[in-house]
Design a protein that fits this description.
binds S-adenosylmethionine, 323 residues, 18% strand, globular
Length: 323
Protein backbone atom coordinates (compact mmCIF):
# COMPACT_ATOMS: atom_id res chain seq x y z
CA UNK A 1 0.00 0.00 0.00
CA UNK A 2 1.01 3.63 -0.37
CA UNK A 3 2.78 5.14 2.59
CA UNK A 4 0.24 7.45 4.27
CA UNK A 5 0.96 11.11 3.78
CA UNK A 6 1.34 12.94 7.05
CA UNK A 7 0.39 16.58 7.37
CA UNK A 8 2.67 18.76 9.37
CA UNK A 9 1.06 20.79 12.11
CA UNK A 10 3.50 23.67 11.68
CA UNK A 11 1.40 25.43 9.04
CA UNK A 12 -1.86 25.18 11.03
CA UNK A 13 -2.04 28.86 11.89
CA UNK A 14 -1.91 29.79 8.22
CA UNK A 15 -4.33 27.07 7.12
CA UNK A 16 -6.92 27.90 9.75
CA UNK A 17 -6.69 31.71 9.65
CA UNK A 18 -9.86 32.17 7.51
CA UNK A 19 -11.99 30.16 9.97
CA UNK A 20 -11.43 31.75 13.40
CA UNK A 21 -13.88 34.55 12.58
CA UNK A 22 -13.20 36.14 15.97
CA UNK A 23 -14.92 33.37 17.98
CA UNK A 24 -13.10 32.02 21.06
CA UNK A 25 -10.72 29.46 19.60
CA UNK A 26 -7.63 27.37 20.21
CA UNK A 27 -5.02 25.84 17.91
CA UNK A 28 -3.58 22.39 18.59
CA UNK A 29 -0.85 20.68 16.53
CA UNK A 30 -3.05 19.95 13.51
CA UNK A 31 -6.46 21.24 14.51
CA UNK A 32 -8.50 24.30 15.40
CA UNK A 33 -11.43 24.36 17.81
CA UNK A 34 -13.99 27.12 18.27
CA UNK A 35 -16.74 27.94 20.73
CA UNK A 36 -19.61 28.86 18.42
CA UNK A 37 -23.01 27.84 17.15
CA UNK A 38 -22.18 25.78 14.06
CA UNK A 39 -25.16 27.11 12.09
CA UNK A 40 -24.01 30.68 12.60
CA UNK A 41 -20.36 29.79 11.91
CA UNK A 42 -21.19 27.76 8.78
CA UNK A 43 -23.12 30.73 7.36
CA UNK A 44 -19.93 32.79 7.58
CA UNK A 45 -17.26 30.44 6.19
CA UNK A 46 -16.28 30.56 2.51
CA UNK A 47 -17.95 28.08 0.13
CA UNK A 48 -16.43 24.75 -0.94
CA UNK A 49 -13.52 24.70 1.49
CA UNK A 50 -13.77 21.55 3.61
CA UNK A 51 -12.98 17.99 2.51
CA UNK A 52 -15.11 15.96 4.92
CA UNK A 53 -17.43 16.11 7.92
CA UNK A 54 -17.23 13.52 10.70
CA UNK A 55 -19.70 14.25 13.43
CA UNK A 56 -21.86 13.00 16.28
CA UNK A 57 -24.75 15.48 16.38
CA UNK A 58 -27.47 15.91 19.01
CA UNK A 59 -29.52 12.94 17.66
CA UNK A 60 -32.87 14.25 18.76
CA UNK A 61 -31.82 17.96 18.84
CA UNK A 62 -33.78 18.57 22.05
CA UNK A 63 -31.41 16.73 24.43
CA UNK A 64 -28.68 19.38 23.98
CA UNK A 65 -31.02 22.35 24.33
CA UNK A 66 -29.71 24.49 27.23
CA UNK A 67 -32.83 23.84 29.37
CA UNK A 68 -32.46 20.05 28.97
CA UNK A 69 -28.73 20.17 29.84
CA UNK A 70 -29.64 22.12 32.97
CA UNK A 71 -32.25 19.52 33.94
CA UNK A 72 -29.69 16.77 33.36
CA UNK A 73 -27.14 18.56 35.57
CA UNK A 74 -29.77 18.97 38.35
CA UNK A 75 -30.94 15.35 38.05
CA UNK A 76 -34.36 16.78 37.18
CA UNK A 77 -35.47 14.48 34.40
CA UNK A 78 -36.44 16.23 31.20
CA UNK A 79 -35.55 14.10 28.18
CA UNK A 80 -32.54 12.62 30.06
CA UNK A 81 -33.69 9.62 32.14
CA UNK A 82 -31.84 7.07 34.25
CA UNK A 83 -32.52 3.67 32.67
CA UNK A 84 -33.34 0.67 34.91
CA UNK A 85 -30.21 -0.56 36.69
CA UNK A 86 -28.46 -3.47 35.00
CA UNK A 87 -26.56 -6.25 36.79
CA UNK A 88 -26.81 -4.14 39.95
CA UNK A 89 -25.03 -1.17 38.32
CA UNK A 90 -26.57 2.28 38.31
CA UNK A 91 -26.68 3.58 34.71
CA UNK A 92 -25.95 7.11 33.46
CA UNK A 93 -28.90 9.21 32.18
CA UNK A 94 -29.83 8.58 28.52
CA UNK A 95 -32.10 10.66 26.29
CA UNK A 96 -35.50 8.97 25.83
CA UNK A 97 -35.85 9.05 22.04
CA UNK A 98 -38.97 6.84 22.10
CA UNK A 99 -40.92 9.63 23.79
CA UNK A 100 -40.59 12.14 20.92
CA UNK A 101 -43.91 13.48 19.65
CA UNK A 102 -44.71 14.45 16.01
CA UNK A 103 -43.78 18.13 16.59
CA UNK A 104 -40.39 17.15 18.01
CA UNK A 105 -39.80 14.82 15.05
CA UNK A 106 -40.72 17.64 12.65
CA UNK A 107 -38.21 19.85 14.46
CA UNK A 108 -35.47 17.22 13.94
CA UNK A 109 -36.32 17.12 10.21
CA UNK A 110 -36.14 20.93 9.88
CA UNK A 111 -32.94 21.13 11.95
CA UNK A 112 -31.01 18.59 9.86
CA UNK A 113 -32.40 19.91 6.62
CA UNK A 114 -31.08 23.42 7.41
CA UNK A 115 -27.79 22.01 8.75
CA UNK A 116 -27.23 19.85 5.65
CA UNK A 117 -27.92 22.84 3.37
CA UNK A 118 -25.17 24.80 5.12
CA UNK A 119 -22.75 21.85 5.04
CA UNK A 120 -23.46 21.34 1.34
CA UNK A 121 -22.16 24.86 0.68
CA UNK A 122 -19.11 24.51 2.91
CA UNK A 123 -17.91 21.15 1.49
CA UNK A 124 -15.93 20.64 -1.69
CA UNK A 125 -17.65 18.62 -4.43
CA UNK A 126 -17.16 14.92 -3.63
CA UNK A 127 -16.71 15.65 0.10
CA UNK A 128 -18.20 13.08 2.47
CA UNK A 129 -20.30 13.37 5.61
CA UNK A 130 -20.03 10.53 8.13
CA UNK A 131 -22.66 11.20 10.76
CA UNK A 132 -23.60 9.24 13.87
CA UNK A 133 -27.24 8.51 14.49
CA UNK A 134 -29.58 6.32 16.44
CA UNK A 135 -31.71 3.39 15.27
CA UNK A 136 -34.94 5.20 16.22
CA UNK A 137 -34.21 8.53 14.52
CA UNK A 138 -31.84 7.77 11.65
CA UNK A 139 -34.60 7.53 9.06
CA UNK A 140 -35.65 11.14 9.77
CA UNK A 141 -32.10 12.52 9.84
CA UNK A 142 -30.88 10.63 6.77
CA UNK A 143 -33.90 11.65 4.69
CA UNK A 144 -33.39 15.31 5.64
CA UNK A 145 -29.72 15.18 4.59
CA UNK A 146 -30.50 13.46 1.26
CA UNK A 147 -33.30 15.92 0.54
CA UNK A 148 -30.86 18.80 1.06
CA UNK A 149 -28.88 17.57 -1.97
CA UNK A 150 -26.44 14.93 -0.71
CA UNK A 151 -26.05 11.48 -2.27
CA UNK A 152 -26.84 8.74 0.27
CA UNK A 153 -23.88 6.32 0.12
CA UNK A 154 -25.14 3.77 2.65
CA UNK A 155 -24.64 3.27 6.34
CA UNK A 156 -21.69 2.44 8.53
CA UNK A 157 -22.77 0.06 11.28
CA UNK A 158 -20.87 0.46 14.52
CA UNK A 159 -21.39 -2.82 16.35
CA UNK A 160 -21.78 -1.95 20.01
CA UNK A 161 -24.09 -3.20 22.77
CA UNK A 162 -25.81 0.02 23.77
CA UNK A 163 -27.98 -1.36 26.62
CA UNK A 164 -30.95 0.35 24.95
CA UNK A 165 -34.15 -1.74 24.70
CA UNK A 166 -34.54 -5.39 25.58
CA UNK A 167 -36.63 -4.65 28.68
CA UNK A 168 -39.74 -6.58 29.74
CA UNK A 169 -43.04 -4.62 29.81
CA UNK A 170 -42.81 -2.10 32.63
CA UNK A 171 -44.59 -3.05 35.87
CA UNK A 172 -45.63 -6.38 34.32
CA UNK A 173 -42.24 -8.06 34.13
CA UNK A 174 -43.31 -11.24 35.93
CA UNK A 175 -46.58 -11.47 33.99
CA UNK A 176 -44.74 -11.35 30.62
CA UNK A 177 -41.31 -12.84 31.34
CA UNK A 178 -40.80 -13.95 27.72
CA UNK A 179 -41.46 -10.53 26.12
CA UNK A 180 -39.15 -7.61 25.35
CA UNK A 181 -40.83 -4.38 24.25
CA UNK A 182 -38.14 -3.60 21.67
CA UNK A 183 -34.90 -5.24 20.58
CA UNK A 184 -31.79 -4.75 22.68
CA UNK A 185 -29.69 -2.25 20.67
CA UNK A 186 -26.52 -3.84 19.32
CA UNK A 187 -25.48 -1.28 16.73
CA UNK A 188 -25.21 2.44 16.06
CA UNK A 189 -25.99 3.53 12.49
CA UNK A 190 -23.76 6.18 10.86
CA UNK A 191 -25.00 7.80 7.65
CA UNK A 192 -22.56 8.09 4.76
CA UNK A 193 -23.27 10.94 2.35
CA UNK A 194 -21.37 12.59 -0.48
CA UNK A 195 -21.72 16.02 -2.00
CA UNK A 196 -22.37 15.35 -5.72
CA UNK A 197 -19.35 15.55 -7.99
CA UNK A 198 -19.36 18.32 -10.59
CA UNK A 199 -21.40 17.41 -13.69
CA UNK A 200 -19.50 14.96 -15.90
CA UNK A 201 -16.60 14.66 -13.46
CA UNK A 202 -15.17 11.21 -12.68
CA UNK A 203 -13.97 10.18 -9.22
CA UNK A 204 -10.34 10.27 -10.36
CA UNK A 205 -10.77 13.82 -11.71
CA UNK A 206 -12.44 14.84 -8.45
CA UNK A 207 -9.59 13.33 -6.44
CA UNK A 208 -7.06 15.28 -8.51
CA UNK A 209 -8.90 18.58 -8.39
CA UNK A 210 -10.54 18.56 -4.94
CA UNK A 211 -8.82 15.64 -3.08
CA UNK A 212 -12.33 14.25 -2.46
CA UNK A 213 -14.81 11.84 -4.04
CA UNK A 214 -13.78 8.57 -2.35
CA UNK A 215 -12.89 7.11 1.03
CA UNK A 216 -9.41 6.14 2.12
CA UNK A 217 -8.53 2.45 2.16
CA UNK A 218 -7.36 0.95 5.43
CA UNK A 219 -3.61 1.09 6.17
CA UNK A 220 -3.31 -2.57 5.04
CA UNK A 221 -4.70 -1.64 1.60
CA UNK A 222 -8.12 -3.27 2.10
CA UNK A 223 -11.25 -1.20 1.42
CA UNK A 224 -12.92 0.74 4.21
CA UNK A 225 -15.81 -1.51 5.31
CA UNK A 226 -19.30 -0.51 6.39
CA UNK A 227 -19.40 -2.65 9.55
CA UNK A 228 -16.93 -1.98 12.35
CA UNK A 229 -16.80 -4.15 15.44
CA UNK A 230 -16.61 -1.54 18.15
CA UNK A 231 -16.81 -1.29 21.91
CA UNK A 232 -18.47 0.90 24.52
CA UNK A 233 -16.27 3.89 25.30
CA UNK A 234 -13.57 2.58 27.67
CA UNK A 235 -13.47 3.80 31.26
CA UNK A 236 -9.97 5.21 30.69
CA UNK A 237 -11.38 7.58 28.04
CA UNK A 238 -14.47 8.40 30.15
CA UNK A 239 -12.15 9.45 32.95
CA UNK A 240 -10.48 11.91 30.57
CA UNK A 241 -13.73 13.36 29.16
CA UNK A 242 -16.89 13.64 31.22
CA UNK A 243 -19.24 14.14 28.27
CA UNK A 244 -22.51 12.17 28.06
CA UNK A 245 -21.98 11.19 24.39
CA UNK A 246 -18.28 10.39 24.30
CA UNK A 247 -17.26 8.07 21.40
CA UNK A 248 -14.30 5.69 21.59
CA UNK A 249 -10.99 6.54 19.96
CA UNK A 250 -10.66 2.98 18.60
CA UNK A 251 -13.69 3.61 16.38
CA UNK A 252 -13.31 7.32 15.60
CA UNK A 253 -9.73 7.01 14.38
CA UNK A 254 -10.86 4.50 11.74
CA UNK A 255 -13.69 6.77 10.56
CA UNK A 256 -11.60 9.94 10.52
CA UNK A 257 -8.84 8.12 8.66
CA UNK A 258 -11.30 6.99 5.96
CA UNK A 259 -12.83 10.46 5.55
CA UNK A 260 -9.89 11.93 3.60
CA UNK A 261 -9.24 9.67 0.58
CA UNK A 262 -5.74 11.07 -0.01
CA UNK A 263 -4.99 11.87 3.63
CA UNK A 264 -5.04 15.57 2.66
CA UNK A 265 -7.45 18.33 3.58
CA UNK A 266 -9.59 19.43 6.51
CA UNK A 267 -12.09 17.31 8.45
CA UNK A 268 -14.86 19.31 10.12
CA UNK A 269 -16.79 18.30 13.25
CA UNK A 270 -19.50 20.93 13.78
CA UNK A 271 -20.81 19.20 16.98
CA UNK A 272 -17.54 18.29 18.62
CA UNK A 273 -18.66 17.98 22.28
CA UNK A 274 -15.54 17.24 24.30
CA UNK A 275 -13.53 16.83 21.09
CA UNK A 276 -13.15 13.08 20.54
CA UNK A 277 -13.25 13.45 16.72
CA UNK A 278 -10.66 16.20 16.89
CA UNK A 279 -8.46 14.03 19.13
CA UNK A 280 -8.77 11.23 16.56
CA UNK A 281 -7.66 13.66 13.84
CA UNK A 282 -4.70 14.80 15.94
CA UNK A 283 -3.73 11.15 16.51
CA UNK A 284 -3.98 10.53 12.78
CA UNK A 285 -2.04 13.65 11.79
CA UNK A 286 -5.01 15.16 9.92
CA UNK A 287 -6.07 18.77 9.91
CA UNK A 288 -9.45 19.25 11.58
CA UNK A 289 -11.81 21.92 12.86
CA UNK A 290 -14.17 21.35 15.78
CA UNK A 291 -17.09 23.56 16.80
CA UNK A 292 -18.91 23.41 20.13
CA UNK A 293 -21.66 25.77 21.27
CA UNK A 294 -21.79 24.87 24.95
CA UNK A 295 -19.01 26.82 26.74
CA UNK A 296 -18.55 24.15 29.41
CA UNK A 297 -17.86 21.40 26.84
CA UNK A 298 -15.63 23.70 24.78
CA UNK A 299 -13.54 24.47 27.88
CA UNK A 300 -13.43 20.76 28.75
CA UNK A 301 -12.15 19.93 25.26
CA UNK A 302 -9.05 22.13 25.70
CA UNK A 303 -7.64 19.59 28.17
CA UNK A 304 -9.36 16.50 26.74
CA UNK A 305 -8.15 16.65 23.11
CA UNK A 306 -4.39 16.31 23.76
CA UNK A 307 -5.03 13.55 26.31
CA UNK A 308 -7.40 11.51 24.13
CA UNK A 309 -5.02 11.89 21.19
CA UNK A 310 -2.40 10.04 23.25
CA UNK A 311 -4.64 7.09 24.13
CA UNK A 312 -3.41 3.76 22.82
CA UNK A 313 -6.03 1.55 21.19
CA UNK A 314 -5.87 -1.89 19.59
CA UNK A 315 -6.35 -0.18 16.21
CA UNK A 316 -3.53 2.26 16.94
CA UNK A 317 -1.25 -0.72 17.32
CA UNK A 318 -2.55 -1.88 13.92
CA UNK A 319 -1.15 1.45 12.67
CA UNK A 320 -4.13 3.74 12.21
CA UNK A 321 -2.00 6.37 13.85
CA UNK A 322 0.32 8.07 11.41
CA UNK A 323 2.30 10.01 13.95
C1 LIG B 1 -23.69 14.15 20.75
S1 LIG B 1 -22.68 15.41 21.36
C2 LIG B 1 -21.09 15.08 20.68
C3 LIG B 1 -20.17 14.43 21.67
C4 LIG B 1 -18.81 14.06 21.10
N1 LIG B 1 -18.95 12.92 20.21
C5 LIG B 1 -17.81 13.70 22.19
O1 LIG B 1 -17.23 12.61 22.08
O2 LIG B 1 -17.64 14.46 23.13
C6 LIG B 1 -23.25 16.80 20.45
C7 LIG B 1 -22.63 18.13 20.89
O3 LIG B 1 -23.08 19.16 20.01
C8 LIG B 1 -23.21 20.36 20.76
N2 LIG B 1 -24.13 21.24 20.01
C9 LIG B 1 -25.48 21.20 19.95
N3 LIG B 1 -25.94 22.14 19.11
C10 LIG B 1 -24.86 22.79 18.62
C11 LIG B 1 -24.69 23.86 17.68
N4 LIG B 1 -25.75 24.46 17.12
N5 LIG B 1 -23.43 24.26 17.38
C12 LIG B 1 -22.36 23.65 17.95
N6 LIG B 1 -22.47 22.65 18.86
C13 LIG B 1 -23.70 22.22 19.18
C14 LIG B 1 -23.74 19.89 22.10
O4 LIG B 1 -23.49 20.84 23.13
C15 LIG B 1 -23.00 18.56 22.29
O5 LIG B 1 -21.82 18.74 23.06
Amino acid sequence: MNKPRVQSGGDSNYIFAPYHLEYPHHLFDTSLILCADCFEWLRRVPEGVFHAVVTDPPYGVKEYDPDQLEKRANGNGGVWRIPPSFDGHERAPLPRFTAFNPDEKARIRRYFSEWAGLVLKALRPGGHILIASNALLSQIVFTAISDAGFEFRGQLIRLVRTLRGGDRPKNAESEFPDVCTMPRGCYEPWGIFRKPLLAGMTVSECLREFQTGGLRRKPDGNPFEDVIESERTPQAERKIANHPSLKPQSFLRQVVYAALPLGEGIVLDPFMGSGSTIAAAEATGYHAIGIERHAEYYTMSLAVIPELAQVTTRETQLSFSLV
